[in-house]
## 1
Amino acid sequence: MKEWYQKIQSAGCMQELEELRIAILGKKGVLAEQFAKMKDIENKQKAEFAKRLNIAKSEFNKLFNEQKTILQARELESLLKSQQIDVSLYSATSNSGALHPVMQTMEKIVEYFTSMNFSIEMGSMIEDDFHNFEALNLPKYHPARDMQDTFYFKDEMLLRTHTSPVQVRTMLHAKPPIRMISPGAVFRRDYDITHTPMFHQVEGLLVDKEGTVSFANLKFILEDFLKYMFGEVDVRFRPSFFPFTEPSTEVDISCVFCKGEGCRVCSHTGWLEVLGCGIVDENVFKAVGYKDVSGYAFGLGVERFAMLIHHIGDLRSLFEGDIRLLGQFV
Ligand code: PHE
């Protein structure tokens, strides 16, 4: 028996232990063999013999269980060692999120103007006719309302077509001087490769005492801003019309694709339109109750900037959520 005890205690793995268990306690095992001898033993010694065998059996069971525990612990330890994970390692498959390219562009634009001491003002996407149109010198039935195809709700409510109503609201509750930008989503009924029904604008407004704000101030800051955004480009101001500014201009930069040579993107003109701006119309100041002030205003589409900076051909692709496109801007 002793020699069997030793064998159990030196079993090196679970499989070896199981083989021993079968050899000792199994149906044809050593103990079964001994129990089979019972029938040949005299009655007097039978009880004693059986007792000894039962003690041996329980001793074996105890030893098996002890060795099993030892082996299991040893196996677990070596498994843990072989599967050790360095949690501080970078995973080649991990994906990190990032700002959408439109938001990255928006941040860069906002960064420029906040560094120039413009405050950021936010407003509601649902507006009323007064703040979106009327106060901006766009009375009802004014033909210029057609410039901005509008989504209307009931009761003269609408989805704002630009962020200019934020300027109106700011002027209504604050006194000049004002130096603000209004970034945010705007909505128009438009859908083609350069228009989506929702897009983002950053508009700016500066108001100060009469005679202190000139077109030259506006020209300087916009030229500086456009060079900050696009690098070394030429900038030109082209006469235009907006109901809320007079005089008004549109601002072009030399085409970032062909460097002004003329290509498909700039319709072979060498120029790309990027901004609208002007000197704030007297009627706007009247609508908000401002007197003896002068100011300039400008507005731009963030998606258009993002497309030009990243050379994206179709505006709609920015809103399809395609990871293959968005992954390039991480
Ligand atoms: N609000 C104009 C638009 O959305 C942009 C603009 C703002 C133009 C300020 C001139 C001055 O089209």
## 2
Amino acid sequence: MADHPEGSRPLWGSRLGFILAAAGSAIGLGNIWKFPYITGENGGGLFVLIYLGCVVLVGLPIMMAEILLGRASRQSPVGAFAAFSRKGSSWPLVGWLGVAAGFVILSYYSVVAGWALHYVLLSLTDHFRHLQPDQVSGIFDTLYGAGDINLFWHLLFMLSTVSVVLAGVQGGIEKTCRVMMPALFLIILLLVGYSLFLPNDGFLKALDFTFTPHLERLSRRSVLEALGHSFFTLSLGMGAMLTYGSYLDRQASLLKTSLQVVLLDTLISLLACLMVYPVMFSFGLAPQAGPGLVFKSLPMLFAQLPGGLLISLAFFMLVVFAALTSAISLLEVVTATVMDRAGWSRRRAALVTGAAIFAFGIPAAYAGDGRLFGAWASMFGMNFFDTMDYLASNWMLPLGGLFIAIFTGWVMPEAARREAFGAPAGRAWLYTGFVFVLRWLAPLLVLLVLLHKIGVLQELGVMGS
Ligand code: TRP
């Protein structure tokens, strides 16, 4: 495919390249670290079912809306909103909100990815063997408290992310995802395969936990959590898919490509459960371990399994690959925006935005240290790290998603929207359904989540906690 058929906008080298890059963005810590532990906390099967419903009803349409906006405008988020609204309107602010969210998310995402790098090193040196369970979980507590070590890995991870984005859409992002995503699929399949053979019916119990719905285990909060997570895991609400969509050729089917990305993301989340839970169950543990699941419980168990070194090495490599292909999409949004707005070269934009995000992430690296920024926790009741995660995933992304749905459903001119959707002949109902969901269903559901967070619904007596 030609490199610059439309002015100076680069395009993906192939459609598979786009799918792998977008799936690379979507598949990340959210799938491998977060999904298994929130599914565990929310009782398994029924939560998974509700989560799937959210993905289909809200996630897929908003992903299509983002890709549509990017492809039709050939711009990063700010320019995309400007392109389809009146001159001087405030819609471009939604683009800036997305850029800010990308900035904030990447700053702490990189610190978590840094933990995984640390664990790759620990696995390589066979550090977990011969340790008692409480010593293994102590490793994480020590790491969390050691700001300097976190800072080192944060720097290394940001340098890797910048070096990919620097190399461009095809030569950097696409090329990296073409190597790392197949590697990721292979590793996860091998690990699930390994889990099949664990003692005490670990795998069967995991299957049952993940797929059998149990009504009594679900609270109303779970529904909201499922919807919130579907945003994070699909990289929605801040213009990441929009920016990737701006490099997509006009012939690619919007529905088909989005569906492929969503399916891959969901598949990996479910496989992550089938890889993590059997280990827990075969040791007689419940999967409710919370955020420490990946960095505390698993290494402890790996240490006692045959081939533990290889298993834990493969597992943490998987986490690093997943995190890196997501991080580059976060940085790409910020970098592309600076390039489009200020006319900077990719090189300069990537270096400067990468450095700024690194600096902004320093307090997150020291969140557990207490020597620096200790005052933050006493001021806000959470440390810097948790504050940023809370702000971004609970507020910025749902708000961004709400505005993206409203903008595409109500504000974007009908003619432009219809053309950008490109419904195949005889499938007009697809377009009608798409617009209906964007106008009504998606905003309503997201609004419900936001109102619940502010506590309005509780006050009206509509919903319990
Ligand atoms: N989706 C990624 C994950 O599951 C994280 C991520 C990457 C993201 N880019 C994003 C989340 C943009 C929200 C918006 O880990």
